[in-house]
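Appendix C: a fully annotated inverse folding record. The material below is reproduced so that readers can follow the format used throughout the book. The structure is listed first as tokens, followed by the designed sequence.
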């Protein structure tokens, strides 16, 4: 719909930088050839970027496909369990089901945060994989270094822990660890990153995993050959060359995140502190009505029925202003209705 503002999928609104578009166009001229199956050039770039060995990096068709590969390599049927917090990323239960494993959930705490003690208690002899989404989609909350290290120390070494850091570039709290710094001591840890959010390539589908070489080898064994296409490989490498520009936009988003949250709090909404490029409104049974109200004002947000609404913070202040205006109106109308 023309004029619609899409704040439902946590993308950055700005298109890819010119250098990235040029790299995509250039790669398209070789579209008759198969891509590099080993994704060597991009793997090398990522390994250098994170100061790890090339053998510690696997690239996938989006980080969601790497989530699936991790479950696939460790689960063979319903007796094998995948543990994640709830509410967390919607893809975890879907891919668990696709692989045929059993999903187990540990509820978030009262502050919409991962309850790592509850998750530790939920690990059983059947647990094969644990997902920790940090910061958590959709609530935006993040776990700190000390509690995460305590959790990792408590999980048996044969259980794979996936630390999904899709929103790492938006984290500003110094207490939130960079998962890459935990890898050396943790052979069962997989850190996931994506080019879909800060790197503005959601439509091209590139994500990557960093872990110990043995684990990466196992991840790659269950990958579909040629899953990362040539345009995606070229675009991701060019995005790394454009990093300063991309990260500058992330800083704009972070500033807007503070402004949006402040204005929502002033309007009477509850909004947990977010370390991602989105905010969470835990409005319970109003979620669907709120999303419908926003859509009527041409702002598309993501409702989770009965639970809350996730709203992307745009890098364009005018997008956020349109959302804030709609949110205030909802409050106003709700006030009228309940008076
Ligand atoms: C957006 C997002 C991803 C990215 O998935 P891709 O497949 O790389 O696009 C991964 N994890 C979480 C929690 C996300 O919100």
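Designed amino acids, in order:
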């Amino acid at each position: 719909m023309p004029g619609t503002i899409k704040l439902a999928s946590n993308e950055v609104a700005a298109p890819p930088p010119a250098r990235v578009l040029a790299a995509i166009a250039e790669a398209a001229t070789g579209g008759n050839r198969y891509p590099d199956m080993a994704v060597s050039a991009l793997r090398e770039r990522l390994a250098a970027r994170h100061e790890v060995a090339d053998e510690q990096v696997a690239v996938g068709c989006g980080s969601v496909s790497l989530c699936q590969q991790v479950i696939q390599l460790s689960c063979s049927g319903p007796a094998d369990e995948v543990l994640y917090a709830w509410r967390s990323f919607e893809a975890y239960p879907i891919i668990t089901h696709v692989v045929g494993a059993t999903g187990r959930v540990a509820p978030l705490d009262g502050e919409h945060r991962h309850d790592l003690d509850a998750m530790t208690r939920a690990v059983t002899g059947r647990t094969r994989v644990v997902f920790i989404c940090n910061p958590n989609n959709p609530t935006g909350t993040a776990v700190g270094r000390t509690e995460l290290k305590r959790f990792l120390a408590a999980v048996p070494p044969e259980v794979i822990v996936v630390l999904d850091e899709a929103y790492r570039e938006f984290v500003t709290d110094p207490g939130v660890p960079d998962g890459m710094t935990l890898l050396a001591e943790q052979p069962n840890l997989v850190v996931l990153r994506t080019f879909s959010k800060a790197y503005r390539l959601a439509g091209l589908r590139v994500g990557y995993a960093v872990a110990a070489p043995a684990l990466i080898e196992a991840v790659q064994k269950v990958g579909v050959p040629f899953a990362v296409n040539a345009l995606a490989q070229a675009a991701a490498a060019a995005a790394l060359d454009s990093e300063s520009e991309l990260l500058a936009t992330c800083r704009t988003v972070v500033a807007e995140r503070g402004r949006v949250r402040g204005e929502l709090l002033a309007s009477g909404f509850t909004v947990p502190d977010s370390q991602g490029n989105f905010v969470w409104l835990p409005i319970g049974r109003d979620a669907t009505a709120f999303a419908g109200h926003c859509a009527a004002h041409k702002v598309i947000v993501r409702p989770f029925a009965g639970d809350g609404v996730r709203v992307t913070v745009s890098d364009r202040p005018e997008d956020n202003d349109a959302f804030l205006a709609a949110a205030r109106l909802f409050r106003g109308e709700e006030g009228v209705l309940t008076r």
